[in-house]
Amino acid sequence: MENKEYSEALNLLSGLIKEVRRLDDKLLLVDIDLLESKLHFSLRNLPKAKASLTAARTAANAIYVPPAQQGNIDLQSGILHAEEKDYKTAYSYFFEAFEAFNALENPRAVFSLKYMLLCKIMVSQADDVAGIISSKAGLQYLGPELDAMKAVADAHAKRSLKLFEIALCDFKAQLGEDPIIHRHLSSLYDTLLEQNLCRLIEPFLRVEIAHIAELIELPVDHVEKKLSQMILDKKFAGTLDQGAGCLVIFDDPKADAIYPATLETITNIGKVVDSLYVRSAKIMA
Q1: Burial of 135: CB neighbours in 10 Å, binned 0-12, 13-18, 19+
Q2: Do residues 150 and 133 lie in contact, with contact meaning Cβ atoms separated by under 8 Å?
Q3: Pfam families attached here (predicted)?
Q4: Does 54 reside within a domain?
Q5: 1 within a domain of the structure (yes/no)
Q6: 281 to each of 89, 145, 269, 278, how far by Cα in Å?
Q7: Burial (0-12, 13-18, 19+ Cβ within 10 Å), 75
């Protein structure tokens, strides 16, 4: 797994699970199911990752599980919930994991705290981040990991893409090399970029792409690519005039009320015809 040979790791685990089930070693089974969940998650197979985690929880409920292992289960639960964009539930699991690791002075506590802060940022509660970091528990873990999340929270609170990019550059090891943080921050960056672009183009009917790029302080080709993607995703109505290097924005097309009304009339006529057919069938009978 550490070598990222996930398929090979799963093949090894499948044989191991059968042997351990014969031994009926529940604690070892919890370890294996949890590891299997992490492997499926790494392969982006969320349904199987959830199934393995459920199996780990079921096995854990039948025995006493050491606090560190319970913390690992909660941490994995939080990661899977965050992947499904259920950040509030994920936060509660990360909090449980943090409390378990913090009591044991386990180094994984800082990662649980980092993911807690991530959840706050993702639900647009970036203002809470400073409060959590300055709390009694948070102060124990001050360092580059928490500084990185604070920088992201500040950028999000100010809706500043430039500050966001500076944070990603300054804390590359803490943000870019953690696959879970990186995936969610990429999604957050895209959302922030779209919101900023929509706000900037709102007053215009026709505007140079270079002018938008200058306002948002990003490269022209990057802005052009994002605008074309937003047009295809129907985030706004418009077209790119690449010859002139301009964005042309159309007024939102107004839906014609006659079509829904016509469909409703035809539906009602159909119901009348059906009822008349049933009535005539009874008379003929």
Answers
A1: exposed
A2: yes
A3: PCI, RPN6_C_helix
A4: yes
A5: no
A6: 58, 77, 18, 5
A7: buried
Classify residue 236: in a domain, yes or no. Answer: yes
pLDDT of residue 253: 66
Total structural domains in the chain?
Answer: 3
The answer to whether 1 touches 39, Cβ cutoff 8 Å, is yes
One domain for residues 132 and 224: no
Q: Is the CB of residue 278 less than 8 Å from the CB of residue 265?
A: no
Residues 96 and 166 in one domain: yes
Regarding whether 75 and 115 lie in a shared domain, the answer is yes
Secondary structure of residue 86 in the 3-state scheme: coil
CATH number of 100's domain: 1.25.40.570
Q: What share of the chain is helix, strand, coil (3-state, %, to 5)?
A: 75, 5, 20
Q: Which domain holds residue 57?
A: 6-203
The CA distance from 75 to 5, in Å, is 22
> Which tens digits make up the pLDDT trace of 177-228?
888 888 888 888 888 888 888 888 888 888 888 888 888 888 888 888 888 8
Question: Are residues 244 and 109 both part of a single domain?
Answer: no
Dihedral, CA of residue 106, residue 111, residue 113 and residue 114, to nearest 10: 160
Q: What is the pTM of this model?
A: 0.74
Helices (H), 123-178: 127-133, 136-139, 144-157, 161-170
Closest CA to 72 of 123, 34, 22: 34
* Helices (runs of H) and strands (runs of E) counted in the chain: 14, 3
